[in-house]
Amino acid sequence: MSPASGDYGSAQPFGVSTEPSSRDEPGPGRRRQGLRVNAEADVAIVGGGIVGASAALFLRRRGLSVIVLDKGACGACASGVNYGGVRRQGRAPEQLPLSARAHELWAQLPDLIGIDGEYVRSGHLKLARTPEDLQALEDYRARTEGWDMDLRILDGAELRRRYAWLDPQLAGGSLCPEDGHANPRLVSPAFARAAADAGADVREQQRVVSAHHDGRGFVVCTQSGAEIRAHFLINCAGAWAGEIAAGFDEPVPETSIHPLMMVTEPLPPFMDVSLGMQGGGIYARQVARGNCVIGGGRGALQSDGYARPSRQELPTLLAKAAALLPPLRGAQVIRFWTGVEGSMPDHNPVLGASSTTPGLFHAFGLSGAGFQIGPAIGEVLSQLVADGKTSVPIDAFRIERYAASAHGAAPRAWSSREHTSE
Ligand SMILES: Cc1cc2nc3c(=O)[nH]c(=O)nc-3n(C[C@H](O)[C@H](O)[C@H](O)COP(=O)(O)OP(=O)(O)OC[C@H]3O[C@@H](n4cnc5c(N)ncnc54)[C@H](O)[C@@H]3O)c2cc1C
Hints:
The chain has helices at residues 50-61, 78-81, 96-107, 109-113, 131-143, 156-162, 184-197, 241-247, 314-324, 370-387, 400-406, and strands at residues 7-8, 30-33, 39-46, 66-69, 85-86, 124-128, 152-155, 172-176, 180-181, 201-204, 208-213, 218-222, 227-235, 255-257, 259-264, 274-277, 283-286, 292-298, 300-301, 307-308, 333-337, 341-343, 350-353, 360-364. Strands 1, 2, 3, 4, 10, 11, 12, 13, 23 and 24 form a ten-stranded mixed sheet that branches. It folds into two domains: 37-88 and 91-116 and 184-253 and 345-406, 3-Layer(bba) Sandwich (FAD/NAD(P)-binding domain); 124-179 and 257-343, D-Amino Acid Oxidase, subunit A, domain 2 (D-Amino Acid Oxidase, Chain A, domain 2). A hairpin with a 5-residue loop joins β19 (300-301) and β20 (307-308). It contains eleven helices and 24 strands. The chain binds flavin-adenine dinucleotide. Residues 4, 6, 46-52, 69-72, 76-79, 81-85, 207-208, 236-240, 259, 261, 338-339, 341, 364, 366, 368-372, 374, 421-422 line the site of flavin-adenine dinucleotide. Flavin-adenine dinucleotide (FAD) binds at residues 4, 6, 46-52, 69-72, 76-79, 81-85, 207-208, 236-240, 259, 261, 338-339, 341, 364, 366, 368-372, 374, 421-422. GO terms for molecular function: oxidoreductase activity. Keywords: Oxidoreductase. Residues 1-35 are annotated as: Disordered. Residues 42-384 form the FAD dependent oxidoreductase domain.
């Protein structure tokens, strides 16, 4: 990963504009590009992905003034290019409270962002290749009872009866009837638009190059020379957030991952659930227009900080897709792509208050599965800022867990857990 270089935390401010502050400008929401205008707000947010934009929306609903700064277009990074899986099934138990709250928020999507985002509760079917995989799905169902997922275990015969279009060799599966999928290209930018409509000052093409606390508040500087002052700072800069945390003396082992995706030409409808695989490897869904969106494997990071599909992985993904989904044989793939996603060694986000700097909150490292929980993370951040607490248990996501391991604490067993980006 090669994040943009910058100075954070104790860094001296630089490039301070001499232009007057915009704090007295009239306050309707603004979404604007490349401004070099100083401003002041209750909360500054670095990153306008689904996390930052939903935090801005919920903060505006609490009446706080908010400035969102994004180095590009809001929702153009991981939040806008992901597979579109909106699932609870398969998440680690510590994520289920957050995921359950997100499930409620997704049901209110048109009220929140003004569009349905092609969100459908199609069901999420997690497939087992072997009897051992099926047992793992059964164990997960037993462990997560009480989270209202209503998981239904299907043996091989039942799977073949219900889903005749699947590879007949599968050992079974687990269906979560109310999980589903949505269009990330519509949903994530819509969160930023909704935040702006609610009164947030959303600034695109504004790369943050330094941030520190000057004793009175945060001072955030952008590459274009704007200086933003705020009482609170939220770091949700995705795969680039680790650098900001490090600047506040909180180094974390964030890396980036680049899940490989492809989409077919429109095909006659056949796949009426979103598919995943126990142990990972491939996932697939079909949209109303007939295109099948399929993920599996990894792309590669380029020196410019963007990621691209890697040629050697394409044949593997094509072969896996044709084996799992016989109706795809002979279909045309019209596009491959990937994205840049922040990932943590335990595949859990960093979420909560900074351990070094009062008023700073982190939310990053969503490890390939943050689209579904993104809106709930935004709501939690708004509660942490406005109330100083949240009712959603987030202790497992404290940034201190990495400080502790740096001082010799035993690594957690779940660091070797299955990892899938859907
Ligand atoms: C290909 C792919 C498939 C995925 N599939 C799924 C899925 O099916 N289901 C699921 O739940 N999750 C999935 N994910 C994960 C999910 O997309 C992410 O976890 C989630 O979108 C992260 O949201 P975010 O807002 O934290 O980060 P991002 O969307 O990456 O947003 C971070 C923002 O910060 C901005 N930024 C960074 N540095 C700076 C700076 N210095 N100054 C200003 N702005 C800055 C960036 O421009 C970016 O817009 C997938 C991810 C990828 C890449």
